[in-house]
From TrEMBL:
<comment type="similarity">
    <text>Belongs to the metallo-dependent hydrolases superfamily.</text>
</comment>
<keyword id="KW-0378">Hydrolase</keyword>
<dbReference type="GO" id="GO:0046872">
    <property type="term" value="F:metal ion binding"/>
</dbReference>
<protein>
    <submittedName>
        <fullName>TatD DNase-like metal-dependent hydrolase</fullName>
    </submittedName>
</protein>
<dbReference type="Pfam" id="PF01026">
    <property type="entry name" value="TatD_DNase"/>
</dbReference>
<dbReference type="InterPro" id="IPR001130">
    <property type="entry name" value="TatD-like"/>
</dbReference>
<dbReference type="InterPro" id="IPR032466">
    <property type="entry name" value="Metal_Hydrolase"/>
</dbReference>
<keyword id="KW-0479">Metal-binding</keyword>
<dbReference type="InterPro" id="IPR012022">
    <property type="entry name" value="UCP005295"/>
</dbReference>
<dbReference type="GO" id="GO:0016788">
    <property type="term" value="F:hydrolase activity, acting on ester bonds"/>
</dbReference>
Amino acid sequence: MLIDNMMVIDPHIHMTSRTTYDYLVMKEYGVVAIIEPSFWLGQPRTHVGTFQDYFNSLIGWERFRAEQFGIRHYCTISINPKEANNEPLAEQVMELLPLYACKEGVVALGEVGFDDMTEAEEKYFRLQLKLAKELDKLVLVHTPHRNKKEGTSRSMDICLEEGLDPLQVIIDHANEETVDEVLDRGFWCAFSIYPNTKMGNERMVELVKKYGSDRIIIDSAADWGMSDPLAVPKTAQLMLESNIREDHVKAVCYGNALKAYGQSGEMKEEHWLEPTAIDQRQLYEGNSVLRGQTPMVEKPFQESIIIR
């Protein structure tokens, strides 16, 4: 454990691509809750049924798996920007989204936005924003890795053109090039601590020193690539060692994510402050998170009255 008693939230991590061991270590490092945005799995999907199974996994098995290790799991639902370019498939996925967007534990529509900034991407970006507005849902916007500044500006323009309140939109994968505009225009500004590509945590320390903590969120965006599911607690530790005020560290690594996504009504602090006891003997649709290991079973009431 890096930080004594500090709780952190990772509001963007793709646990579908991670192992159960990651959940175990994340819990030890103070991660109490995560948000798993629906995303591109690395190989284009060719049938709408694969999206349906994936969405069912996000609201079912993956939530069960996280809670078996004491971490609260939420998710966002979308057709991601990259796969929006397969328009016949995107049309079918759009029909699924209203069925999942209002499920328990779904805190936003996302990731939506741009990959290559094509006409098809903009079409489904706008359609999903319209759906979010209709359902009064928050939006998580993926900003492109190429043409970052132009793509971020255009994404915010489109959100405003579609009538979204900036305080209900999280602009993700921000960097030094885009942070001023995102904050100036009133949106939530999220940074992904992802090695060698999106953002390093030494750079993040300097950004918090410069901008403070207002509307700034840190996530890992960890997935199947070279990424780190401990990016948020490690960055919190580095910030404390760099003499950043503790209240600012807690805001960018915990409080702001709760404040932003808590607007959904689905994400509440009491979920992890008053957790149900872990019982790894439990099954989900007949399946266990264990692969032959001895199950962990908590007995919180008995533990609270024992004096050793």
